[in-house]
Amino acid sequence: MEVSMTVNGSPRTDSVEPRLLLVHYLREVAGLTGTNIGCDTSSCGACTVLVDGESVKSCTMLALQADGAEITTIEGLADGDELHPMQEAFREHHGLQCGYCTPGMVMAAVSLLKEIPDPTEAQVREGLEGNLCRCTGYHNIVQAILAAAKAPARAAS
Amino acid sequence: MTAVEAAPRAGGVLGTRLRRREDPALLTGEARFVADLQVPGTLHAAFARSSVAHARIAAVDLSVARSMPGVVAAYSGADLSDEWSPLPCAWPVTADMKSPVHLPLAVGKVNYVGDALAVVVATSEYAARDAADAVVVDYEPLPAVVDLEDALSDRVVIHEDLGTNSSYTWELNPDQGAVDSAFAAAAHVVSARYVQQRLIPAAMEPRGVLVVPQPFGGDYTIYSATQIPHILKVMLALTAGVEETRLRVVAPSVGGGFGSKLNVYAEEVAALVLARKLRAPVRWVEERSEGAQSTIQGRGQVQHIELAAAADGRVTAVRVRLIADMGAYLQLVTPGVPLLGAFLYSGVYDVPAYSFSCTAVFTNKTPTDAYRGAGRPEATYAIERAMDALAAEVGVEPVEIRRRNFIPPEAFPYSSVAGLVYDSGNFVGALDKAVGLAGYEQLRADQARRREAGDRVQLGIGVSSYFEMCGLAPSRVLASLNYSAGGWEAATVRVLPTGKVQVVTGTAPHGQGHETSWAMIAADRLGISPEDVDVLHSDTAIAPYGMDTYGSRSLAVGGTAVHLATERVLDKARSIAAHQLEVAEEDLDYAAGAFSVRGTPEKAMPLAGIAFEAFTAHNLPEGMEPNLEASTHWDPPNFTFPFGTHIAVVEVDTETGAVRLVRYIAVDDCGNQVNPLIVEGQIHGGIVQGAAQALWEDAAYDADGNLLSASLMDYLVPSAAEVPSFETGSTVTPSPTNPLGVKGVGEAGTIGSAPAVLNAVVDALSPFGVPDITMPATPERVWRAIREAQEARK
Ligand code: FES
Ligand code: FES
User: Fold this and answer.
1) Is the ipTM of this complex over 0.90?
2) Domain ranges (residues) in chain A
């Protein structure tokens, strides 16, 4: 079946199996392997992308359900050579180690600040509940997001 | 403090909070993990696995699977038995250790739920998985052996040819008489039984492997999500019968390991064999729920620990007896894990008498193996829980019982009763600092207030002073433990003709930031910017020798190798500079990346210039080889011994049993720190893994051998919402074992934290008279413990 969507600003149309998950579409059809897969129960958040600006676990959605949507993946976040402020904040605060959870974590963080521009630590922690990281113990991820919220360049933009 | 930009200044980069060079690729999706690699014509493998814990296989019917769309081939274990030999176990801890044959695909019998028994290869991942689900197996079920003490009884013997479920008994018993007389004379005796539940390592990247053959050239490139590309290459050559020179193993970006990728797995051997047979690239990527059973699990011990103590609480002897759960088979280092803890059950204490014994048993469960800390968290948990029990018995504060027993700073190097020489330590220093950071007195006052008021939510404060051995090496000591590999590490440092530096390391990072830290080590010595140093690793074609990354060994062994190779490069550069400047070597100074003549600083040669001279080789000292490059294989003289004190603060709701970790204070001493940013990150992550064992995670099995927590919905890996921010500090006691004075930090957080958190939970409940809670301290267990203690008091 045919599906059309805009991925990181570029419109595309592909013919896909009806059961193809959005995450597999992005990785295998669109060739954007930055979005990772960490589970088969929608528990880990490694696959988080923005669908029409909202953070969504892309393993919980069929590619067909995203027909007509605007998708942003981790590859679409940086502005040319400039890292997005949230990516910068993660780097500055050592919010990643192996980096496997990172694309999903960064997308979730961008969406979190869009919803709550000046969150408390507790709100950041609650907001990240659906994203697991096995390396960092979350401490520096939380620091990075709090710092990004304070940064002059709006990290949620 | 925040990170700094790459220091452009000369030298002095060690100890700075340099931001990681690994990050941009990982933050933008540019990094490539195994599952991201796309090779045209790749076939996808999926495994059919046993759905029962223990059974004879009457028949495997592949006919439906073979007929499904996209399926290229399907094989049972019997179909491939000529293609491979059994999977390796590299740690036969005793001469008479019993080790079952462990084939990549089971033949005749399955021994745990998840045991692979057939493989399907198809043109897509979806097709391969559908077909694997269509494999029909006719089982003749046998009773499952799940409980460790039951396994010891040999009521049901899993591997009939071995005649017993006991794999080995290993003892460390320097002076039994001393132990017996200490117990006979003891004023206090503590006797405890602790259970180390099994844990699922749950690295966020599942395992995966892609084998790309060149059918006519005969070469294979194996991309694997592994911590051990070098060891894997040797083992694949041996198990699949391919010449080692035909194999190249690459670990691309690897998404965490924690020991779970320190192995030689059935799927890796199978992918290689299938690529050989089908003459096509073959790929397998693990599903999370599949991995819960097909990837090794950690811990799995029943611990009996006894302390003898004098009236003032000074420990006079420690006696330990373990039963260790091997699971159904021995993986790469399964039997050795309890031995890594065997030397540490006397903890940070000056204990004069010690005995240890461990009996390892087979069960119908997923094999266990090294998981972050491997033996050492278990040992630390037992001694640190027992020390709290002793404090209660003697009637002193947990902090005080530790102070009375610490090995004093002036006693180092210290020969332990278990036979190790501890390199350096200042246990009381770390404890004092942690107590200060925590505001310990204030916490105790707060606790007393809540107790007095009979608050529903009680406060618990838990202390743990840990100690561990890491930097695995020295090879000769590993030999005495029957470990079948060395512990050295390799490094090459080369200054290229343009002056840029390449470091080649045998370590295999998967989150630890070696590219940043190794660049810092070389740059610091060379007096150049770390930006000018590139670090190559995790590819056996680039780094021919290596012992890989596990056991907190990489910095103490691999980092030191980088330092030593850099020294050699500088020595050679000095000879070239002296030759060309026509002065004696002793008359040269080296600073900011250049040699200059003492007293005549305008006579100078920068490192880049020397490298170019070495490259052209037009004018080198007589007999000197061209190029500015040096290699080393460093085998340290001893382990390194990091230590620290952790303090956990919990709130326990005495009505619901719910435990909340509210504060966590960690003071760690890993010797000199190369990059404190990275050190802290390792500690943070380690704390959460240990706290998770104490409070949430449990790979529990039912009586039939079914794993009850096979997905991330049931296996409670904590999220950010479950843990607080951490208050960390450090002390610095350099290790005399290596010239960098470093110790290692990869496992320290995990080793210190489980006992700190459990001690805090038990501390909160002490007014109720609850002596112990089995991990994980779930609300139900805590609630029951309170109720039972109340009943008992009526
Ligand atoms: S892969 Fe989507 S939530 Fe885990
Ligand atoms: S950085 Fe490794 S899982 Fe988050």
Assistant:
1) yes
2) 2-76, 85-150
